[in-house]
Design goal:
Length: 598
């Protein structure tokens, strides 16, 4: 049986996972997927809630005596390390592009990685049913992007097809009858090279991603490049630094549909999962020949952001989470490193402090959210950009930003991004919508998303991806407001909050338990203000006309994990528990404490 290996790559929300759903229904595994739920490959809870793909996943379909292995890759820039590694396991990349939006920043990122590896790229123009779709124009824009990224002549002559993934329809020409997904499957057979299947050479494989099973332990998932592999086979694991160690494959799995199927043997060209080598890592070469050559190294872009993870030492610690000690946090971070290759952790000399490096705010926020759902309690610092020293000067990461918004909102966005050291590259206005392109330091984007939502009243879209390193741009003023800090322990009183709400938006409501140093709201004047939120009204037996009006409180701002991470500044922490997200100040000056108690 012939094998074809493809990866579906795209900008976030261009219909990549929906297209995989259509392929699973259209292949010969249809009987197993009659009850296939929407975006079935997004099986993680956070993937379903956020509507994005976070982890690369494998599936396969059978069509006309051909096995097509499909890799569904993340579309968000923060999870780019998943894309880079999976590209090494495939024979062609399938680039999905929205028929209205055209190529976007993340399209450029994933495409450049595919072209660097030398893969042929097939293009699917999706969502051609949109009223504003412009499929032919998008094909031209895609060609321009290929040329800009230095594609070879062969890659520039890319084949393309049109699709409506949500309806399971693909057509070669825009005037063709819209029937089913079959034209896309035939398109794959026509343009995706057959995977080489040389079984005469010794077995060689390289894990491109890792999985973890509670019974089998760490598993390596990758492509068999040469030879064949069997369950219970002795192998050698070779590392980039020239070391070789023995290992044994206890279990072997291939993929059918979205299921991992246990197999006794697998041959060159197939994508498999191996169990039994507990210390296997991405990029190592697994082989039956101790003298075999190493497979080319898999390189992953370095982390862009760092955050401090600490044991929660607030007065309310230990009440809501079951796992809060440094040992628990250390073990959880080490477990995450088993499979999350884009992550890096430094264990400080202080046992209660860990520095965690990731590709972006969302990359680290997903880890924190998973930890709190598992019962962990911790506190984290504000994100810091990871800089590099180039030619003796400090360089920082610069991002490409593309924003779509109504025309009347563009002025305020341009002003805000300019204050954050953003430099406009392009502006286009069409049909009442403005498209803005900026280059901006990663530091300038930290905390901007929530501001952006307010500026556009939820009507704009914001996309960004890493571009390059450039000399440090100097100080960036982002938050113009200060923090309102509790100077007392106890339960917040409605009377006190009523008097405080004129000074800025509050993050808490009445009866919320507070403690000294807890941030309970913003202070509009830009300085930190220590207040007493537990102060009640003095009661007397004298009633005065008009002084006993009902207290009217503005609903507090809901502080989600992402908002909290964006909000905090130096000397402020986010306290994360399974049920609460709180903000706190690192310390309070003695004179401020005395003043607040008067």
């Amino acid at each position: 049986m012939e094998i074809r290996n493809i990866a579906i790559i795209a900008h976030v929300d261009h219909g990549k996972t929906t297209l995989v759903d259509a392929l699973l229904k259209g292949g010969d595994v249809i009987a197993e997927h009659k009850q296939l739920e929407e975006r079935a490959m997004d099986s993680d809870d956070q993937e379903k809630e956020r509507g994005i793909t976070i982890y690369a996943k494998n599936a396969s379909i059978f069509y006309k005596d051909t096995k097509i292995n499909i890799v569904d890759t993340p579309g968000h820039a923060d999870f780019g390390s998943e894309v880079e590694r999976m590209l090494r396991t495939i024979d062609a990349a399938v680039l999905v592009i929205d028929a209205h939006e055209g190529p976007m920043p993340q399209t450029k990122f994933v495409l450049s990685k595919s072209l660097e590896v030398g893969l042929p790229v097939l293009v699917v123009i999706n969502k051609i049913d949109k009223p504003t779709a412009r499929p032919d124009e998008v094909v031209d824009l895609t060609f321009d992007l290929f040329a800009k990224l230095g594609a070879s002549d062969q890659q520039l002559d890319f084949p393309y097809i049109y699709a409506i993934a949500k309806d399971g329809v693909a057509i070669k020409n825009l005037d063709d009858e819209k029937k089913d997904i079959t034209p896309l499957l035939d398109f794959f057979l026509e343009h995706v090279p057959v995977a080489p299947a040389d079984t005469t050479k010794p077995f060689r494989m390289q894990p491109a991603t890792l999985a973890y099973d509670n019974f089998l332990g760490r598993m390596g998932i990758g492509r068999v490049y040469e030879g064949e592999v069997k369950a219970n086979q002795n192998v050698f694991v070779k590392t980039e630094d020239g070391k070789t160690r023995p290992g044994r494959i206890s279990k072997l799995f291939t993929f059918r549909g979205m299921e991992r199927i246990e197999a006794q043997v697998a041959q060159a060209g197939d994508i498999v999962a191996l169990a039994g080598i507990d210390d296997i890592f991405v990029g190592e070469t697994i082989t039956t020949d101790e003298k075999a050559e190493l497979l080319p190294a898999i390189k992953v872009d370095p982390p862009a952001l760092a955050m401090d993870f600490m044991v929660n030492d607030s007065p309310l610690s230990g009440r809501e989470g079951k796992l809060g000690s440094s040992r628990h946090i250390r073990e959880r971070l080490l477990k995450e490193l088993e499979t999350n290759v884009g992550l890096k952790v430094e264990m400080e000399n202080n046992a209660d402090h860990f520095k965690v490096y990731g590709r972006g705010e969302m990359h680290i926020a997903v880890l924190i959210e998973n930890m709190r759902r598992e019962g962990f309690e911790l506190q984290v610092s504000k994100p810091e950009v990871v800089t590099q020293e180039i030619d003796g000067k400090v360089h920082e990461p610069i991002e490409n930003v593309v924003i779509n918004c109504p025309d009347d909102m563009s002025g305020k966005i341009i002003e805000t991004l300019s204050q954050r050291k953003g430099i406009m590259q392009n502006i286009v206005s069409k049909d009442g919508q403005t498209t803005l392109e900026f280059e901006i330091p990663t530091r300038g984007l930290l905390g901007f998303r929530s501001t952006f939502i307010l500026l556009t009243k939820g009507e704009g879209t914001l996309y960004h991806s890493f571009s390059h390193f450039a000399p440090h741009c100097g100080k960036i003023e982002k938050r113009s407001v200060g923090s309102m800090i509790s100077g007392n322990d106890g339960q917040a009183m409605g009377f006190a909050l009523y008097n405080l709400q004129d000074r800025g938006p509050l993050f808490i409501g009445p009866q919320t338990e507070v403690y000294e140093g807890m941030i309970i709201g913003e202070h509009n004047q830009g300085t930190d203000l220590v207040v007493n939120p537990i102060k009640g009204k003095k009661l007397t037996n004298v009633r005065a006309s008009g002084s006993d009006d009902a207290i009217r409180l503005t609903p507090p701002l809901e502080m989600t994990l992402e908002k909290a991470i964006e909000y905090v500044q130096d000397e402020e922490y986010v306290e994360v528990t399974p049920s609460k997200i709180r903000l706190r100040k690192k310390y309070l000056k003695e004179h401020e404490r005395k003043r607040s108690n008067k």
